[in-house]
Amino acid sequence: MNIRKLKSNENPPKELLLLADPSKDIVNDYVDRGMCYIAEEKGEMIGVFVLLPTRPGTLELINIAVTEEKQGKGIGKRLVKEAIKAAKAKGYKTMEVGTGNSSLSQLALYQKCGFRIVSIDIEFFTRHYSEEIFENGIQCKDMIRLAQDI
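The chain above was modelled as a monomer; its predicted structure follows.
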């Protein structure tokens, strides 16, 4: 698997990004402001992540997605590790990530990669998304914020 920064003349993989974030408007906004990286295997795009500077010295892993057929094979963990490596190379000191209260496997993944829960943004998803989101039989309402020093 090859992971690389998306070239300026390439279009971001919006359909893949929408697997992790159902709002086209929100995805379009942060893709335009962030740095998009893609994972390829045998010429096929299988994963993506977006890094967004938020404050001096701090970068947020704003979206990470793996194609449905490749999920559960450790690719997400490799993408998180590559995101951390890219952030360090650019001189960032802290990486943040946010995920829904119903995103159980993502919460586990981020903690396995060294992130710690630092706050909860109550009702984030009900305030910012027009449609209800359900995962694992749980309504996604709150944003769980995690961070780590890198």
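The beta strands are 2-5, 35-41, 44-55, 58-66, 94-100, 116-121, 134-135, 138-139, 143-149.
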